User: Fold this.
Amino acid sequence: MKFPFLLLLALLVSTVSRAQPAPSAATIRTLMRKANVPGMQPVYTHGGKTHAYALGQRTAGQPAAVDATTTFEAASLGKAVLAYVTLRLLDRGVLDLDKPLLAYAPYPRLQGAANAYKITARMVLGHTTGLPNWATNPLGADWPTTPLRLKYAPDSCWNYSGEGYVFLQKTLEHLTGKSFETLAREEVFRPLRMQHSSFVWQEKRAANIASGHDGQGKPVPITHFSSAYGAFSLLSTGADYSRFLQAVMTGQGLKPATAQLLRTPANSAQRCGQPTTATDAFIAWACGVGLATTSRGLAQWQWGDNGNFKGFYMTLPAEKATLVFLTNSSNGPKMVDELLRLFFGPGEYRATQWLA
Assistant:
């Protein structure tokens, strides 16, 4: 009687893990109209197959359509790129994740800040440095020299921090003698064939770049990032970023033990000063990516938010599935849950509930 049982079990497993049929472009366009999103690039992979879409307009009211090489601001999705660069350098012995960053080089913005000497790369990657997200607007002229002070004790709780990632980036630049744009190109963009990605403005992208849009659908001026910042200035395409996600999901380019750091909780993402919510038990943070316990297994995830550009990614390593989408609208997050269900199938994914 064992054989029929095992056959039934195999069929059930096959049914659960079978690829969700990719939705039609028309279905996604309907979601875009509902959310008032002018343009987007969703890219879905499963079992080695890729479904890439280029939908809508680069600028609302203008005829130029989004295509596969249209560049979007990917915002905080660049943090995973910085984390991956850090892990590549860890594998070569350039740094230790648990050595205080100030032991490598001074950081003038933290001069005199209590407990700053305790901050490590592992804390930065897991958002437990105790630093604020931003001391002031990072696009402001005075931001690079604005003094930093800790809001919480290092390694005591989870507080999302772009400033922490900038601190780590400056340390990597000191240790290697290279700009972050150069590091990203050498460690990520070139090996993963991300030909349409950079952290600084390149004039060659001007002919095919998306404009951001506010909540009412009004386009805003395009930002020309003159300096590279892993925390927010990534310019990319859905196709490029999808290739990067394959490396994040599989650990490509990393030693096996290092790759595991992208799938293992570094902390429980207990938010500083916030009451416990029903989804807290399902969310943790690894070294550079969020982790979610979903109804389809462990997921890696992150959102991107530059105000008028919003993006999101999630991977399901057990199913060898990834989804990333970049939008040129502040309304992008309205589509996350529906897109996850469209591409991955019905289930509890919990990321947006935790963010809310």
